[in-house]
Predict the structure.
Amino acid sequence: MSTNNNNGPSMVSSAGKVSAATAISRIMGLVREQVQAYYFGAGMVTDAFVTAFRIPNLLRDLFAEGALSSAFIPIFKDKMIKRGKDEAYRLANFTLSDLIVVVGVVVALGIIFTPAIIYVSAKGFAEDPIKFELTVNMTRIMFIFLLLVSVSAVQMGILNSAGRFGVPALSPTLFNVGMIIAPIFLYKYFSVPIYTLAIGVIIGGIGQIVFQYPSLRKIGFEFKFKANFRDEGIRRVGRLLSPMVIGLSASRINILVNTLLASMLAEGAMSYLNYAYRLMHFPLGVFGVALGTVALPKISEDVARNQTEQLSKTFYEAFGLSMFLIVPSAVYLAGFGEDVVRLIYQRGAFNSQDSINTTLALFFYSFGLIGFAGVRVTAPVFYALGDAKRPMYYSIISVIINIILNFALIPFWGFGGLAAATSIAGIANLALLLASIKSKISNINYFHIGIHLLKTILGALVALFIIKAINIDGMVQPHGIWAKILIVLLQMVGMGLLYSLLLWLMRVEEVRRFRSFLFKKK
């Protein structure tokens, strides 16, 4: 998407750092999933863990990485530019202190009322007292993670606003490491070994905070507990945060509905959806989340400096890069998902039927990648301009669409219908945001956005069909781990090269950007 943006290399470079760090974290996340699949497979105990972790994980999006960081960064960046570092760090201390108080209360209440929460969110588990009790106990353990990850999210926001992207993006690796080492080293000491995963969550949460602390010290930030709910900056964060929480609450309610419906389907359905979601989330994290992470501080800076022209260029570049990377990822997972699932998961307690079922869920999730990633770089425009209500309304609408489609599609595709409904709702959310972004950035050109998106989709589909026709699976018999790795690598490299060539022939700007980034003089 050509914008003649002279800031292009800086965004590509920053996003490259975040993508590299996030890729390491996501790879460790896949290792974590492999460890989980190897030790526990897909069944009663994994369904219990997935459900137990989903509760604090949903609240994490509200109090941490989803709403709080998006509300905090624009205000923090505005303070830093207009009033200086000291005022910005003062706001950060108030934010962290208030957060500890509020989230601490939420965690305490959550632990007390866990049985009622699990009954409402996974009613199907109540028919099995052992499964229900196991889910309750693990949820109580992992509620503490909510406080840990909330503190970590504010740390990330401070570092990202200061132009430090690598360490925050790498910090989730510590979370994955905690969940990997816990079952490996503690499995034999527990009569119910699945508890080791819950303990690993807490170890990982502590690791994220500790890992970022030295970087905060380097930029001159030192935490001092001082709660202040009346500070002007805190009130501004609160005004942005409130509609974000409502919007995210609506989407989290949808996930709880998905959990409830999945708990009533076939044994293992929740695990299949979880394994597939993790695979889909790999490119979303490496590309979509990385670009969203870089875009929010840059967009906030453009707004703080009142640079309208630069704001449109920043959005064009962020959205163009996101689609350039996400579209082929989505097409690849839809076309070659079974090979990826076999490579990542099929060993130990995870059998071939589990691979087939996980591939079905992955196929439907893959289409939603475009919507999920697009929202990551589009919503920050509204947040930076102080409008969190419009994304909230669209989030609520997409949730309603999702819930309606859940019931419409389950009769056709079972648990796969839940994944399909989630993907369609994600695309609807992006479409609504794009339809109204012109009210925020008047010089946005929808024609250029549409042509760019069509070119990326066309290039990705043609590349997929060519690699499918070559039939790499037939050339390399998928026996043994190295053969499986070779098949996936050949598919990825072949499709990536063809896709890049096709988009270069169609004169898509992002090919030139990446070429300049990869071969620039050091």
